[in-house]
Design goal:
Layout: H1 3-10, E1 16-18, H2 19-26, H3 30-42, E2 46-50, E3 53-56, H4 68-75, E4 79-81, H5 83-89, E5 99-104, E6 109-112, E7 117-122, E8 132-136, E9 141-145, H6 147-157, H7 166-170, E10 182-183, H8 184-194, H9 197-204, E11 208-209
């Protein structure tokens, strides 16, 4: 591989790359690109994440590690970080979370990768990014559920028959002082998004701020 191409890889803004992006950088025929990619994987310069998705490694001189939250959206999308991973990110649950959990518009799926386990739970596809924030910095970019969206995703995806806030403190071990208040408008937006009896029962039992 030429030094020019090697430099192109090292200067990329993120470590994850699709096979199409790799092909554009490597050039040559389809078979030639496939052979080059296979050789880079064998040399440890590329990490195979899933079909059509790779990560650059330090063996390639690429020192920036892939951020699992950013990588999740390349593995399976459209999706955003939610459930336990989002609750941990917002410092609401005390336990360490080892599986990267996301909500997605496709069917639920789990991926075992060299980076870790990525779990995706199905949600209604209309307005999927309702109550979801974009974290965007020079280092990383990913979508993540706001605290109450992550909680409602948890109730919806795990089919919890919760009718008040007590399970948040007893089951999820959320400290009540850490839990942001649920605004009236926020509750109405969430009710409208899920259109789900289980969610409506739960939100009805949550104290709101007018």
């Amino acid at each position: 591989m030429t030094q020019k191409i090697s430099n192109q890889f090292q200067n990329l803004p993120h470590s994850q790359m699709t096979d199409m992006e790799l092909g554009a950088l490597l050039g040559g025929s389809l078979n030639s690109r496939y052979s080059k990619i296979k050789r880079l994987v064998e040399q440890g310069k590329l990490l195979h994440i899933r079909r059509g998705l790779y990560c650059l490694t330090k063996e390639f001189g690429y020192t920036k590690k892939p951020h699992p939250f950013e990588l999740a959206q390349f593995i399976y999308g459209p999706s955003y970080i939610s459930l336990e991973s989002a609750l941990s990110y917002h410092q609401l649950i005390p336990e360490a979370v080892y599986t990267i959990t996301s909500a997605c518009s496709k069917r639920s799926k789990e991926f075992q990768t060299p980076i870790g386990v990525f779990s995706f739970s199905h949600l209604p596809s209309d307005s999927l990014y309702t109550e979801v924030d974009l974290v965007n910095s020079s280092e990383v970019q990913f979508f993540i559920a706001k605290p109450w969206k992550a909680i409602c995703d948890y109730v919806f995806c795990y089919k919890k028959d919760w009718t008040n806030m007590e399970p948040l403190f007893e089951s999820l071990r959320i400290d009540e002082e850490d839990l942001p208040e649920l605004l009236y408008n926020e509750r109405e937006i969430l009710n409208d998004y899920y259109k789900n009896t289980r969610i409506k029962r739960f939100l009805k039992g949550v104290k709101i701020k007018l």
